[in-house]
Amino acid sequence: ADKVRGLGVAVQTRSTGQQLVQESDGRVIGIAVQQEGRRQLLRARRGLVLACGGFVHNREMLRQYAPQLARCSTPWGGAGDLGQGINMGIAAGAVSLRMNEGFAVAPIYPPENAISGILINAAGQRFIAEDSYHAVIGHTIVYQQHGRAWLITDKDSSYADQDNFPLAGESHTIAGLADSLSLPRGALQHTVGYYNRYAARGEDPMYGKSRGYLRPLQGPPYRAWDISVDRAFFPAHTFGGLATTVDGEVLNSFGEAIPGLYAAGRNTAGVPTAPYIGSGLSVGDATFFGRRAGRAAAGQGS
Q1: Does the pLDDT at position 279 exceed 80?
Q2: Residue 239's closest CA among 103, 78, 144, 106?
Q3: Residue range 38-42: average pLDDT?
Q4: Residue 67 and residue 135: Cα distance in Å, rounded?
Q5: What are phi and psi of 21, to 5 degrees?
Q6: Closest by alpha carbon to 229, among 165, 153, 299?
Q7: What percentage of residues in the chain have a pLDDT greater than 70?
Q8: What is the mean pLDDT of the chain?
Q9: Could you give the CA distance from residue 53 to residue 80 in angstroms, rounded to a whole number?
Q10: Which 3 state secondary structure label does DSSP give 279?
Q11: What count of other Cβ atoms lies within 10 Å of the Cβ of residue 100?
């Protein structure tokens, strides 16, 4: 912000972008904005960069493009992540990519003792290594398990104090716990029996969980914590956006750059893809590629 002020950049707040202005050949030459109740047309002398974030707070867009993410309990993003930049770009002829993808988080740890429990789906079966990265667990639940999952713990892996996941069931037996969750008959008992047999040897032949977290589930009370997308603390945000070159030029459906139009950050389908395996990648889309887009729009090259 200090750099912007030092360069004499005119910052206009309380302004909402509404529509791009194009010439007859498709070149973007400006933008229509709403400023304090009045519609204004702003001219772009060189280029226009869209940097309006994603669309996680636009429920209609979420249901249209990413219905799995729309079910997640906690839309996670800036207040301006309303999809306006993406929609303006599409209206100007841009193509969008990976609009169904996003970052969904199921933070089952810390505490690390919870990793010794097992994650199960609605069939009473394990589906992932419990020491997987939060976003990989979240992605698997959202996109592969119909949004439903539970963490099964025993006396040593249970949470002492947390409010991320509601307690869905408790019993002194695995069978009783399975009944409280209305799981298929015998499924959870089979899952726990198989898991315990190999965990006692320090092995997880199905998913390769680290030996440091492998031990049999034994010792009541057994508890089931609801890790479902609509009942747990399940933050999510979007990845999809406009297709661009490495210099931020926005592309149309023929792979051609739309003259005068650039984009950066979560307005673009940039570096991150699902499942998300590297926190902070969106910073690169905003900073590194934002700088390239700004330089290109200013006509200074890369």
Answers
A1: no
A2: 103
A3: 93
A4: 18
A5: -105, 125
A6: 165
A7: 99
A8: 94
A9: 7
A10: coil
A11: 15
DSSP-derived letter for residue 233 is: -
Residues 6+ apart with CB under 8 A from 105: 76, 134, 135, 138, 234, 235, 236
CB burial of residue 47 (10 Å; 0-12, 13-18, 19+): buried
Edge-first strand order for the sheet with 222-226 is 118-120, 150-153, 222-226, 167-171
Dihedral angle over CA of 39, 42, 47, 51, nearest 10: -40
- Neighbour count for residue 63 (Cβ, 10 Å): 12
Residues 39 and 33 sit within 8 Å (Cβ to Cβ): yes
Q: How far is CA 178 from CA 148, 186, 277, in A?
A: 15, 8, 32
Mean pLDDT for the stretch of residues 105-115 = 93
Sign of CA dihedral 178, 179, 183, 185: positive
Q: Which two tokens stand for residue 272?
A: 């991150």
Write the single-letter amino acid at 200.
A
Tokens 């996109």 correspond to 143
pLDDT in tens, 193-240: 999 999 999 999 999 999 999 999 999 999 999 999 999 999 999 999
Closest CA relative to residue 116, chosen from 198, 209, 194: 209
Tokens of 160: 């002492």
Are 126 and 120 in contact by the 8 Å Cβ rule? The answer is: yes
> Using omega within 30 degrees of 0 as the cis cutoff, is the peptide bond preceding 166 cis?
no
Q: What is the pTM of this model?
A: 0.88
